[in-house]
Amino acid sequence: MVSFFVEKPQTMSASQNVFVSETTMSSIIPNNNNNSSSQKLPPGLISISKKNLLKNIDIINGGSGQRINAWVDSMRASSPTHLKSLPSSISSQHQLNSWIMQHPSALEMFDRIIEASGGKQIVMFLDYDGTLSPIVDDPDKAFMSSKMRRTVKKLAKCFPTAIVTGRCIDKLYNFVKLAELYYAGSHGMDIIGPAKGFSRHKRVKQSLLYQPANDYLPMIDEVHKQLLEKTKSTPGVKVENHKFCASVHFRCVDEKKWSELVLQVRSVLKKFPTLKLTQGRKVFEIRPMIEWDKGKALEFLLESLGFGNSNNVFPVYIGDDRTDEDAFKMLRGRGEGFGILVSKFPKDTDASYSLQDPSEVMDFLRRLVEWKQMQPRM
């Protein structure tokens, strides 16, 4: 993941009227007051090398034309459909075949996956954009198909199911409209559980589980307003407020304007040193600089379900974005379950398997449901 970080202030900023939250789960993020580089920092702090710190301060506060060009190159590579971003060695058939051998199709390996689950409780975690819905130019039109909705509804009847996304929960729910799911919005910083007595036609209030970045709400609102103002001269840009994070979509921005957009975004973020900038598929993500991501959200949800220290659980995470790599990495470290990357192109990933697009995701989920429904008969 391409990330910019700067040193986090030790005290609350009076001008911004916000402070960094320390209310993270001690069972998930160890509380250690030793701030040496070899030790884990307390919740809310991120270890960063002096070299990277100086480099990233340079990027935020000025930098050089070369650094701007590096950002633009990264923007080109942020979408696998940008063929110019694919080195010839990777696009070769040999490299493609090698990648597929390392990350085989989850559909073709379905029986082996079921065998690996060993009768344990399967828990499903799903990204939304690019996984349950296609990637579209307008993020407000990333609609889930009715077939996919029915499939996810059946899945939730068979296994505990969560959607983990960068979107805010309210927008996500308007797309999904299934109250029987767990939702982790804002890259896992806004987590709610299934509603009791949910209705098909009317949303019922769901239980709030966790909001580790609650103190950042005023700051995110202000950043969103400033980004809207700063980027309004750039045609095609889309700025969104996801409650605990913000995003700047450049999918519809002319590539000739990308350097200008980088300057606009960083000119805003240099005023907010407790926020970090990361990059997804043709989108900039602005998030609080706390030690929390989709991997931490996955851990929290497993803990909430009673599987925190259990050996009887088999988590499956399906996603297509760089931010999903935190969840893939967590599963590899846990040694239980696996990640599935949704991509038609070779990517560096900690996922174990792959699926090409949302239609293959739906086929995989359907097979899981069919397998589960067959269990009593078997």
TrEMBL record:
The UniProt keyword set, sorted, is: Hydrolase
Q: Which InterPro entries match?
A: HAD-like_sf (IPR036412), HAD-SF_hydro_IIB (IPR006379), HAD_sf (IPR023214), OTSB-like (IPR044651), Trehalose_PPase (IPR003337)
Keyword Hydrolase appears in the UniProt entry:
yes
State which pathway it belongs to.
Glycan biosynthesis; trehalose biosynthesis
Q: What is its EC number?
A: 3.1.3.12
Q: Which cofactor does it need?
A: a divalent metal cation
The cross-references to Pfam families, in alphabetical order and at most eight, read: Trehalose_PPase
Q: Give the source's domain of life in one word.
A: Eukaryota
Annotated catalysed reactions: alpha,alpha-trehalose 6-phosphate + H2O = alpha,alpha-trehalose + phosphate
Query: Which EC class heads this enzyme's classification?
Result: hydrolase
In the record, the note on similarity to other proteins reads: Belongs to the trehalose phosphatase family.
Q: What does this protein do?
A: Removes the phosphate from trehalose 6-phosphate to produce free trehalose. Trehalose accumulation in plant may improve abiotic stress tolerance.
Q: What is this protein called?
A: Trehalose 6-phosphate phosphatase
Species: Camelina sativa (False flax)
